Amino acid sequence: YLPKEIQLYNRIQLYHMICMALGGRVAEEIFFQKVSTGAADDLNKVTKIAYNQIVIYGMNDKVGHLSFPPEQNDGVQTYRPYSEKTAELIDVEASKLVRKAYEETTKLLTEKKDLVAKLAAKLLEAETLGHDDLVAILGERPFQSDSYRDFLANTKEFAKKYGSEEELAEKDKSLQKQKEEQRKQQEQEQQEQQGQQQQRQTDEKSSTSNSAQKQNK
């Protein structure tokens, strides 16, 4: 269920990353009606993604297609190329983005509360969950891209179930060899059938010719 590591992200992907990072905090509120410090690292990631979308990647309609990468000197920002008004707008837009993601994540996890509870119970039982465990509880992914299949092919769970990449490559070679042998056999059978058909046609012509000669005599 993890995406392949990529270097480029669009606005929707970044938004989904925010939602994913907020999942732990939202789950605390849904199941325990209180929050803890456990989500601190996730919230730090959420904040960075939200501000980077607006300040660096130019992905906010109100701020526009502008990029303000931080210029730092010994860890201290020495210059900010925008006004206080723009800074306030950035804060407002970042908060709005995170709030929207939080609301959508809350709605999703509330709808899927039973599945979240099953995952939690399974995690307490097994300590770690593999891909097959997730599929057994959540079902197959509705969309299976090439990157998802690549991810699966590189997991230990996949190797244990289907073999390592080397073993899979060897199996693939063996399968290709079998297909090639079957193809050659089919071609040989077709050639034999064609030869037999041609022989029958030749025999029929010869028989017809002999009959005609006898009649002429």
Search tags:
two-stranded antiparallel sheet, Peptidase_M41-like, 217 residues, mainly alpha, Methane Monooxygenase Hydroxylase, Chain G, domain 1, 8 helices, Peptidase_M41, ATP binding
Strand order of the largest sheet: 1-2
Biggest pleated sheet: 2 strands, antiparallel
End-to-end Cα distance: 88 Å
Structure summary, number of beta strands:
2
| Secondary-structure-derived class | mainly alpha
Give unreliable regions as ranges: none
How many H/I helical runs? 8
CATH topology of the domain at 1-111: Methane Monooxygenase Hydroxylase, Chain G, domain 1
User: What is the molecular shape?
Assistant: elongated
**CA gyration radius, whole angstroms:** 33 Å
Mean pLDDT: 84
Question: Judging by the overall fold, what is the CATH architecture of the domain at 1-111?
Answer: Up-down Bundle
Question: Approximately how much beta-strand content do the residues carry?
Answer: under 5%
Q: Note the run of SSEs as H and E.
A: HHEEHHHHHH
CATH homologous superfamily heading of the domain at 1-111: Peptidase M41
Helicity, in percent?
A: over 70%
Structure notes:
Helices cover 71% and strands 3% of the residues. The longest helix has 52 residues, at 165-216. The chain is mostly helical and 217 residues long. The chain has a domain at 1-111: Peptidase M41 (Methane Monooxygenase Hydroxylase, Chain G, domain 1). It contains 8 helices and 2 strands; from the N terminus they run ααββαααααα. The chain has a two-stranded antiparallel ribbon. It has helices at residues 11-32, 40-55, 84-111, 113-126, 131-138, 146-153, 156-162, 165-216, and strands spanning 71-73, 76-79.
